[in-house]
Amino acid sequence: WPTTGEDGESPVEVVGHELVHSGKVRGLYVPLDPQTGGRDDLRLLLAASDRISAYDHVLSTPIPDKGSVLTQMSLWWFDQLADLVPHHVVSTDVPEEVAGRGVYVRRLRMLPVECVARAYLTGGGLAEYAATGTVSGVALPEGLVDGSRLPEPVFTPSTKAPVGEHDQPISFTDVEALVGPRLAARLRDLTVAILVRGNEIAAGRGILIADTKVEFGVDPQQLADALGIPLEQATEGEVDWAGVDPDVVAVVLADEVLTPDSSRFWRADEWAPGRTQTSYDKQVLRDWLTSPASGWDRASDAPPPPLPDDVVALTRDRYVEAYETLTGRAFDPSGTTSS
Ligand code: ATP
Ligand code: MG
């Protein structure tokens, strides 16, 4: 976690807020009313830390400014995508403890699906293709290899696994069973449209976005009204998603979008199907971790060692470079620079 001081383990405290969830990299806070101390039901504070993960481990060494870079990048993308999908951001005027890396968002009822789309074949998609010739059940041409561009982006959803477990791939039919056919189709179409738009923009700037994961939610009050259920139930109780018409209840883009944590970024000029692609953001880190210099055995259960300063600095540079290349803006850690 950023600015936590010594242990680097516990999330930063934010005055006037209660931490309600801490993920591997981000924290979620509920604002408290300064007078009554009561919880604000409408907003959440979402703050990205400087922690970084590699090879399924969260490393003990943070990357300075990473949380801020990713938050600024997400904000920029929300803007770029605003004509495709509404987003959850309310304000970037946040407490100083999380300046630059925190955002206030509308509190949404999240849909129970991790929405993934792939424009290029690699990772879990490649593994499925090698075994069955399909990705998420969608038949693909023969002869594709690691890094191949798909004829068109494919929706490859997964479950939202509980903390500490891995998301499991599911089929489109499974998504229909979870949220009904209308919402399932909307989630698929929006996810694919976001990745297509992302690549249209990034391609002109030398970056390929191989795949991405997004999360969507709906306004609890709208949900309650549409289904005729109490607000409390719409907020955290049982919901009959199949009864929701996405033309009536707006599907809102939440969480983060098209960041290197939620997506695979590749350098367009180094793209070479048939091998593992180099990662725009994490390659320096991965190369060091798997080199003799780190002394770490990836196959062991041991946590990776602390990172040397030069690896930290080079990795930070990569994140800043990705942000500046994509957005054409100079990176400002405090996030106060407009356009
Ligand atoms: P991991 O580290 O594996 O990603 P995680 O998904 O639990 O774990 P985060 O992604 O950091 O951790 O946590 C963000 C959480 O906030 C997610 O559960 C996400 O669904 C939720 N979330 C994001 N935006 C909103 C929103 N607008 N309203 C309500 N919940 C939200
Ligand atoms: Mg997450």
UniProtKB/TrEMBL annotation:
Keyword Transit peptide carried by entry: no
Record has Protein biosynthesis as a keyword: no
GO MF: ATP binding; metal ion binding; phosphoribosylamine-glycine ligase activity; phosphoribosylaminoimidazolesuccinocarboxamide synthase activity
Keyword terms: ATP-binding, Ligase, Nucleotide-binding, Purine biosynthesis
BP GO terms, sorted: 'de novo' IMP biosynthetic process; purine nucleobase biosynthetic process
Family statement drawn from the similarity comment of this UniProt entry: Belongs to the SAICAR synthetase family.
Entry protein name: Multifunctional fusion protein
Native organism: Ornithinimicrobium avium
Residue span relative to the full protein: 430 to 768 of 773
